[in-house]
Every structure is written in structure tokens, then in C-alpha cells.
Amino acid sequence: MKHKSILIVAVVAASVLAVAGSAFTASNSFADPAIVQGFGQQDVTGVTVESVTYNLDALKENVQSVTFVLTGDTTADTIETGFNTDAPTTCGGGVYSAGSDDTTYTACGITSAVNAIDRFYLTATGT
Questions:
Q1: Which of 36, 48, 68, 90 has the greatest CB tally within 10 Å of its CB?
Q2: What is the dihedral of CA 79, 83, 85, 90, to 10 degrees?
Q3: How many angstroms separate the CA atoms of 84 and 116, rounded?
Q4: Which residues of 10-24 are buried (b: 16+ CB within 10 A; e: fewer)?
């Protein structure tokens, strides 16, 4: 009788693990889990950011440029961006739209491998 009880407990435990395992894995699927397409932090100082777009290469492995939209006319401000602890790069050529009251910046000369990025920062001075 003792062996029968152990067998029943083992079968029940295996069934619970199988059900729990399928419940926890059913909601997540990735085409290629080895490709990292995100990072942990965005730091912004001196302006309000409406959007940030990371423009990737065809393989989605490298950020080729960053496009961002700032609230208001920031064309006279000094806008600096960078990844991680890299030296800041000054962004020029912002295009102001009076209709939407925002300024769009494209490129800014910062690039990086996606899986090397932990942080994006943007600093505006002169606002």
C-alpha cells in the first residue's frame, strides 16, 4: 500500500508541474530570443519628449539613428544625446512645426549595437 501511495503522489505532482509549466510559458513567444531589442532606461533633462524612435538596420541588430520629437520650438536649444555612458553628441537640425508645436530631430550621429545599450539619454540646455 505504501508504494501505491508514493506512485499516486508522484503522478499528481508530475501532472501539476505539466499544467503549471504550460500555463507559464503559453503567453510568451519570440521569433529569435537571442536578439535583444530593448534596454532599461531613458533619461531626459530640460524638455518634454513626445516620442523616441530607434531606427534599426535590416537585421535589427544595430541602432543606426535615433529620431525624437520634443514639445515646443527647441531649435535654439542645445540638444545632446547618447547611449550608456558614451560622450554626448550634439544634435542639430531640429525641424519645428508650428501646427503641432513640436520639434523633430533625426539621426544625431549616435549608433550602437542593440544588445550593448542599457540607457539612452537626452539633455537640453537653453530652454
A1: 68
A2: -20
A3: 9
A4: eeeeeeeeeeeeeee
Q: How many Cβ atoms from other residues are within 10 Å of residue 63's Cβ?
A: 21
For the chain, domains (ranges, CATH) are: 41-125 (2.60.40)
Backbone angles phi, psi at 108, to 5 degrees: 70, 5
Grid cell locating 79: 540638444
pLDDT in tens, 12-58: 334 444 444 444 444 443 444 444 444 455 667 778 888 888 899 99
* Secondary structure (3-state) at 10: helix
Contacts of 57 (CB under 8 A, 6+ apart): 64
Q: H helices within the chain, ranges in order?
A: 2-25
